[in-house]
Design brief:
The protein is mainly alpha-helical. Helix content is 41%, strand content 9%. A two-stranded antiparallel sheet has the order 1-4. Strands 2-3 form a two-stranded antiparallel sheet. Helix 7 crosses helix 14. The termini are far apart.
């Protein structure tokens, strides 16, 4: 049997390898990989369960992965949090404040917050909404990495390259990078996400909570930790304390989750213990043991209660009502352009706000939204054509989506999926407003039978000369709303041709 001291030394290496795998899957998302790019989402039982409740259907990969994680928790407790969770690893690497001798921790009842959030997430999902799932730690760290950290790293690389190229012996390395890495792993264009600052600051705030207590997020706020904690109440492997304990409190001060309780003979709650083994080397009397037990752990005052269930249910119902009233107040936003095949309100009951589709979009046209879908659609993806169009030869978002909120359309089906319709603003379009020729939008239209045609006209210039013009006209029945026309429009600021949410053409004849 492997000793606990040996396992403790092994843990940082396992954490580093798991975190490295997370980064590799993040960078390689949308490309062929030896493991699925959404592996960590598959092993997230909270995301899987919430998606099942909201969408009323089962995604096999999420179901199987979630069951594996729950079975592992039944055997090993919250080892996922202490060994594999990428957010937990980052929190371990972030400087933290641990309690000093005789210094009390924040009230244990603060741990109820994560259960409150968990119950609210599941009840709101039961009502068809996944908005609060943006608090799930896997979606939180992935969204931050994809929309804030990754674009920042690319900008840094692009800015440093010209400086490195000035050093003669580094020119070969820069040329190799541009030839072999740029356009593959590193995109040719700089991705830009409108909410990257807000997303980044939110994540920094999570890390900054370590200044209050080590792993503050895991102790008090993490809803996934709540799921695994409840299951770990009946976990087989647990920490026990023998009679040789001299109550030196060293183990309690070393515990990063503050679950070793001096008032209970230094016992730990398996629902809060992440199996980090940091307590092992602190015990000089070898009074701690990790053994197999079949008896359920005692219920603690901060564990979920009937009152908390009612409070969470009330909060979920109020939130669902507010989100529903928001949608009922009017039509969808005119610029609510969803990824191919994901039109309709049922999209909100499937999307877990993970950000994978945003990461794999080659043009960075997919953006996490703050306002276009209302609070009920917070962080869900929308296409912003002025930033990037929907590539006619790409169906990566559907292939990468872990919940199939974006259908896995074949390239042929994706090319005919209507996500919007383009309209020419004749008050800004150069041929219409200024009598100057411009056919960029027509040239860019990728459809075999172009949705933009040119109308020939002759006008009188201010100098009295006859000028032959070609003016663009959109044939809505052909337009799929890919947005390349808006993206490439040469006008500064707002384009003269813009894509809006799709119109039901059959309803207007």
């Amino acid at each position: 049997m492997i000793r606990a001291h040996t396992l403790r030394k092994l843990r940082p290496w396992v954490q580093a390898l798991a975190f490295a795998l997370f980064i590799v899957l993040l960078i390689g998302a949308g490309k062929t990989a030896f493991v699925p790019a959404d592996l960590f989402f598959r092993l997230d039982p909270l995301a899987g369960l919430a998606n099942i409740l909201a969408a009323r259907r089962i995604v096999p990969s999420l179901l199987v992965g979630g069951l594996i994680a729950l079975v592992a928790a039944l055997a090993l407790g919250r080892a996922w949090c202490g060994w594999l969770c990428p957010l937990g690893t980052l929190l371990d690497w972030t400087p933290a404040r641990r309690s000093k001798k005789f210094e009390p921790d924040p009230s244990p009842r603060l741990r109820q917050v994560k259960y409150f959030l968990l119950i609210a997430i599941l009840l709101l999902a039961l009502l068809g909404n996944l908005t609060f799932l943006f608090l799930d730690p896997i979606t939180l760290i992935y969204r931050t990495a994809a929309t804030a950290a990754w674009p920042g790293l690319i900008a840094l690389i692009t800015g440093v390259e010209p400086l490195l190229y000035k050093i003669p012996f580094l020119q070969g390395a820069v040329n190799w990078f541009e030839s072999n890495v740029r356009g593959g792993i590193v995109p040719m264009t700089q991705p830009l996400y409108g909410l990257n600052v807000l997303i980044g600051l939110t994540f920094i705030g999570v890390l900054a909570l370590n200044a209050i207590r080590d792993r503050f997020w895991c102790r008090y706020l993490c809803p996934l930790g709540g799921v695994l904690g409840l299951v770990s109440k009946v976990a087989w492997l647990r920490r026990t304390v023998g009679d040789v304990c001299i109550e030196c409190q060293r183990c309690a001060r070393a515990c990063p989750t503050g679950t070793i309780d001096p008032d209970r003979h230094f016992a730990s709650d398996p629902a809060e213990c992440t199996m980090c083994l940091e307590c092992v080397p602190t015990c000089s009397r070898a009074g701690q043991h990790f053994v197999g037990l079949l008896k359920p752990a005692a219920w603690r005052p901060y564990d979920p209660t009937r009152r908390q269930l009612l409070a969470s249910a009330g909060a979920a119902i109020v939130a669902a009502g507010l989100f529903g009233a928001e949608r009922a107040a009017g039509r969808d936003h005119e610029r609510l352009i969803r990824p191919p095949g994901s039109q309709g309100r049922e999209f909100l009951s499937k999307c877990i706000r993970c950000g994978i589709c945003v990461k794999v979009c080659p043009t960075a046209g997919l953006q996490p939204t703050l306002d276009r879908a209302g609070w009920g659609g917070l962080w869900t993806p929308v296409l912003v054509p002025r930033l990037g169009h929907c590539d006619y030869g790409c169906n990566a978002c559907g292939q990468a989506c872990p919940t199939e909120a974006i259908p896995r359309l074949s390239l042929a089906d994706k090319r005919v999926a209507v996500i919007g319709h383009a309209y020419v603003d004749r008050s800004r379009c150069l041929p219409w407003a200024s009598d100057r020729n411009c056919i960029v939008c027509e040239e860019m239209c990728p459809l075999p039978e172009k949705a933009i045609v040119l109308e020939e006209a002759e006008v009188q210039s201010p100098l009295g000369e006859t000028v032959a013009l070609k003016r663009p006209i959109v044939i809505l029945e052909r337009c799929i709303g890919c947005g390349i026309c808006e993206n490439r429009c040469p006008l500064g600021g707002e384009a003269a041709i813009r894509v809006f949410a799709p119109t039901d053409l059959s309803a207007i004849g």
